[in-house]
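Need a sequence for this fold. Nothing fancy.
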């Protein structure tokens, strides 16, 4: 089968022919129908080097996956051949307290396990097929289009989890500032809109991303840059925002977030841009809570699918064939993707 392999640090991925995996006991083989291209993959093969991640190449990329059950290993019950499924991306131990709560993203044994999930240390879904090491990691999607479901597993789930933590603040009259309206951010706008009546201010440095944000329900859009903080204050009658979520995470966006978050607000950094911001007694308004978030729980993923089924959340996708998967990452890097680039192998 074909697979887009991450072969070495600081090296672009390469399409290779590899053997079809076979499911052992408890495992499931799926045929991939869609695999999203996440910006984290760009960080992986462009920015990181050996020792910074708890795993090493080689492995197949792709950590946003959906497809159909192709073969079922011994002892697996409840799944049938041909059943449409999505893959819950963060793979923990499955047994610790956090994993039992459905939060494999925060598995207590992650450091012992090494790999973070399929496409992140283990073979992922930018391939014709993907081996799922445990049936518990599959979520049946029913009649949801796999091309939509795949990006929902990360680009949908990650902002859903980040917004969920701040939902009590998003009362009518409050403001959510979402920075970076790409794969994650364009879902974030829809999720904030569906779950709250807060004023949504979308920030990006691309006009196209801002126009998408408006289409998806943002109340205001702001081009990032020197005047962004002032513009956001104008939109909030000078008060700033209860919730700021930074889907970029570079110095400029984190500093903008700090400038516009208000007293008792939440500032959440989701983007892995490697930026820093000042934190000291006087650096932020009183009682601002800071958090980074990583992915989300499997029950939140079910909620994200439900939001999509009920028509509140739609992934805007640009399709690429598996042979063109490197081009999907090229387009992502060049800022040419509106929403999410999704690889469709067949
Ligand atoms: P993306 O490339 O699709 O979107 C990023 C968006 O940010 C683009 O629209 C881009 O124009 C915009 N942007 C870039 N620089 C900006 C700036 N200075 N000011 C305003 N906007 C700017 O990326 P994505 O796949 O949505 O991922 C976003 C970030 O989130 C990446 O760093 C990725 O690694 C990270 N990520 C984190 C998690 C997590 O669990 N924490 C999960 C998935 C992705
Ligand atoms: Zn990702
Ligand atoms: Zn665990």
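Here you go.
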């Amino acid at each position: 089968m074909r697979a887009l392999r991450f072969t070495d640090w600081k090296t672009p991925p390469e399409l290779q022919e590899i053997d079809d995996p076979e499911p052992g006991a408890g495992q499931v083989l799926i045929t991939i129908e869609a695999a999203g291209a996440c910006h984290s993959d760009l960080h992986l093969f462009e920015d990181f080097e050996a020792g910074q991640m708890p795993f090493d190449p080689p492995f197949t990329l792709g950590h946003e996956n959906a497809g159909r059950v192709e073969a079922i290993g011994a002892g697996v019950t409840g799944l049938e051949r041909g059943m449409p499924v999505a893959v819950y991306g963060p793979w923990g131990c499955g047994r610790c307290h956090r994993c039992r709560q459905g939060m494999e993203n925060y598995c207590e044994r992650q450091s012992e396990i090494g790999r973070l999930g399929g496409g992140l240390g283990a073979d992922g879904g930018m391939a014709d097929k993907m081996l799922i090491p445990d049936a518990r990691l599959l979520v049946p999607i029913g009649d949801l289009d796999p091309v939509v479901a795949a990006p929902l597993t990360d680009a949908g789930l990650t902002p859903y989890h980040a917004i969920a933590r701040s939902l009590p603040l998003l009362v009518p009259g409050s403001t959510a500032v979402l920075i970076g309206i790409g794969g994650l951010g364009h879902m974030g706008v829809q999720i904030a809109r569906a779950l709250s009546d807060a004023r949504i201010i979308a920030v990006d440095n691309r006009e196209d991303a801002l126009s998408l944000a408006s289409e998806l329900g943002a109340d205001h859009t702001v081009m990032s840059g020197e005047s962004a903080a002032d513009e956001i204050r104008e939109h909030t009658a000078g008060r700033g925002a209860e919730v700021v979520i930074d889907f970029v995470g570079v110095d400029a966006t984190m500093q903008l977030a700090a400038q516009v978050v208000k007293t008792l607000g939440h500032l959440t950094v989701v983007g892995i841009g490697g930026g820093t911001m000042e934190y000291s007694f006087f650096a932020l308004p009183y009682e601002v809570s800071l958090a980074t978030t990583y992915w989300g729980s499997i029950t939140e993923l079910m909620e994200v699918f439900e939001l999509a089924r009920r028509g509140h959340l739609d992934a805007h996708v640009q399709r690429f064939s598996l042979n063109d998967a490197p081009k999907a990452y090229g387009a992502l890097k060049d800022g040419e993707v509106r929403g999410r680039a999704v690889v469709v192998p067949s």
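For context: The first strand starts at residue 2 and ends at 6.
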